[in-house]
Amino acid sequence: DAMVIQNPRYQVTQFGKPVTLSCSQTLNHNVMYWYQQKSSQAPKLLFHYYDKDFNNEADTPDNFQSRRPNTSFCFLDIRSPGLGDAAMYLCATSRDLGEQYFGPGTRLTVT
Amino acid sequence: GQSLEQPSEVTAVEGAIVQINCTYQTSGFYGLSWYQQHDGGAPTFLSYNALDGLEETGRFSSFLSRSDSYGYLLLQELQMKDSASYFCAVQNQGGKLIFGQGTELSVKP
């Protein structure tokens, strides 16, 4: 089945230690998104790639970076995680501006 | 600025009908989506309205009035498995989704 895959599902990192979350998709969608969702809150868009074009949200901290080496893969890099970065990180994909398909998420814990 | 308002929680009984309202203020409005999210899970797409009117998909229907900046999600024949959070989300220019804070639906026996 075509899907959005996120690895790992659970990630524990230390305060200040860089961490990378990964997302892959078999839908061949040209748009990929990264959202941050904290407990009992709405998903918040961090950035997205429209094809190879990177689009950063104005309020996304510089601590968060992203890479998309090819259509299928997208990475979220957190350069120096703080305690406030503990959250669920959701990857989503879409064909152009259509319906977004979400992956299962990676729950990040910062110790 | 952009904002969406929806009730924080709703409770209903099995077999009943429930309506979750969403009002929004945004620029560059393209459409209104609804997502369901079970505890610990990912949001899953339910419906999308770009034009005024009612869209029906099985037990779920969604309505949009662009002139009133208002929409709702209607869930019929409620089942226990419908207990989840429901988010309305505005799609603006560039295809970005701006989510509301979510409505937690509890379905009781």
Plain-language structure description:
The complex is a heterodimer of chains A (111) and B (109). Chain A has strands at 4-7, 10-13, 19-25, 31-37, 44-50, 53-56, 64-67, 73-78, 87-94, 101-102, 106-110. The termini of chain A are far apart. Chain A has 111 residues and is mainly β. Chain B is mostly beta strands. The mean pLDDT of chain B is 93. Chain A binds chain B through residues 31, 40-45, 48, 50, 55, 90, 94, 96-105, and chain B through 30, 33, 35, 41-45, 48, 87, 91, 94-102.
Structural topology:
The complex is a heterodimer of chains A (111) and B (109).
Chain A: E1 4-7, E2 10-13, E3 19-25, E4 31-37, E5 44-50, E6 53-56, E7 64-67, E8 73-78, E9 87-94, E10 101-102, E11 106-110
Parallel strand pairs in A: 2-11
Antiparallel strand pairs in A: 1-3, 3-8, 4-5, 4-9, 5-6, 7-8, 9-10, 9-11
Chain B: E1 3-5, E2 9-13, E3 18-25, E4 29-37, E5 44-49, E6 53-57, E7 60-65, E8 70-75, E9 84-92, E10 97-99, E11 103-108
Question: Could you name the key traits of this structure?
Answer:
heterodimer, A: 111 residues, mainly beta, seven-stranded mixed sheet, four-stranded antiparallel sheet, 11 strands, B: 109 residues, six-stranded mixed sheet, five-stranded antiparallel sheet, 0% helix, globular
